[in-house]
Fold this protein.
Amino acid sequence: MAELGCYSPSFKKPCDVLRMRRNRARSEGPERTTSSPVVSVPGVRPFSPGPLLNAPGRSRGGVKRRNPFANIENTYNSPKKRALSHTDGEKAAVAPVLDGKLKERPNAGASLREELLNTDRRKRHEMTTVPLSEDDCLFEEERSTPVLKSPEAVCPAAPAEVCVEFPADWSLKTRVLFTSPQSFSWAEHLKAQEEAQGLSSHCRAQFTSAPANIPDPRGCVELRCGFQQCLQFWQHPSMPWLSLFPRIGAERKFSGKCVPWALDTTLQQSLMSDWSVSLTSLYSLLKARLCPYFYLCSYQFTVLFRAAGLSGSKGITALLSPTTRGLREAMRVEGIEFSLPLLEERRKSKDLAESVPQTDSEEPASSAALSEHSENEEDDDDDDDGGFSWLKEMGVQDKIKKPDAISIKLRKEHREVCLDHRPESVVLVEGSNTFTLLNFLINCKSLVAAAGSQAGLPPTLLAPTAFRGATLHTLKARAVNVKTRVRTGYQDVCSLEVTGPIMPHTLHALTQLLRPAQRGEFSVGLYTHEPTAVLNVPISPSSEPEPQPECVVQDLGRCGLQQSSVQQLAAPSILGKCALRQLHMRDYSYSWKT
């Protein structure tokens, strides 16, 4: 071993090390003392786990060995606790001295007491300014953070805008997730009688208000029947083996499914004929104010028809999104008058920015961007309409090939083509033009896909009330209790998940039920069908005064919705092209995020 280069003279075998330790223990005896005095701190263990230093049952014969897995910052030898023990020792040493000095000089008691207080303040300041390690900071934070018993730690902080009612959201939701500290067990395992009563109340448009205070939600029959009533909706066509919502971008869901109408022309004509009857029935109900609104969901766009009075309108309105230049051109050919609300709003803001005089040389960023965009468009138009007179001035008009009329037309239509499939392409149709739009949709060949997994399948019709050829469907609801991670550990959070085509009245009715059931404390996560988010665009105000909500509720009294839901839907939309993403209720007050 001495000849090897890796040999170390100080190397000792494990058996030699154990023998040396046994001999040292015998020579020092049982009453040996440690090299460093141990400071006794009340309530602190020497090394965890183990008995307290001052515990009466602890033997004084030996010293407990150090736990190799103990954190040094959690023991009596940590800098923070050592400073605390030194401060306590100094206070105990100063106390008898102070008593003696006070006895000798009674008049100097005030000055000594003040000197002692200054010393104590200085020591405390030194303790607070001692740099702590990362473990100390984490330990201090965990010790000072209280345990949260409510789901406020799970949900983000509610925005500042709080109201007793949230704005109407005309977009379709694919999933809604309710969370609350109170249990949702009342919403599951409904009895057969409760389901039957809920279905009957929905079909007859009979609404029973739940009590304002519900001590036991599981035993409240009105609450459970009302919940079953809120989950109902009407749909056409109905294919049990196919999910007909959403339709935009759902080719993968339809692939591999049984579609017997794909290659059968006769079957496709039969489906379209039945679908046309259902669409005409819905429009008749809408015109008679027996149906508040309905959706037409095709594989390319979505149409929202609304009755007169809803969203601040005077007559029937229809919104289409997204659209293409070809669809808009076909609507113009059919004589349908429509507008592009978002483009008109941009144009009005541009005109307003130009009319207001600018005091500074710099304009706002948004106005500058709009002006630059408009100037570029005007330059393009000038280049197209101005001709090629500048070529004659240069004398090269015969050497340069001029663009033909088709190229010039395409350049002029470039602005419209850029809007395709974007939120700005939303189309608004009002008044009697909605009936022309109805005929256009029935006869439009591009409304149904000619190829692909959705070939030959008519668009999906969704409505809150019954119509010809409709099938009654129920949204899927599931109550789950989960554990959510917080800073101090885990906490129980109750959740209720509702999936399916969730329409505006359904969301409002569910929140009205959950208000007393969850004692005014819940949060909602809303998952929007993105192509329908722009349906919240406000209608341009007309010269005529807006209808009063009371008159709208009276006119739509037989539309099949609750009066509170009709009153909410009658208010003008304030969300623009955005949709609600989060909804919070705290102390019976709403707050939301878009």
Summary: The radius of gyration is 39 Å. The first helix runs from residue 14 to 28.
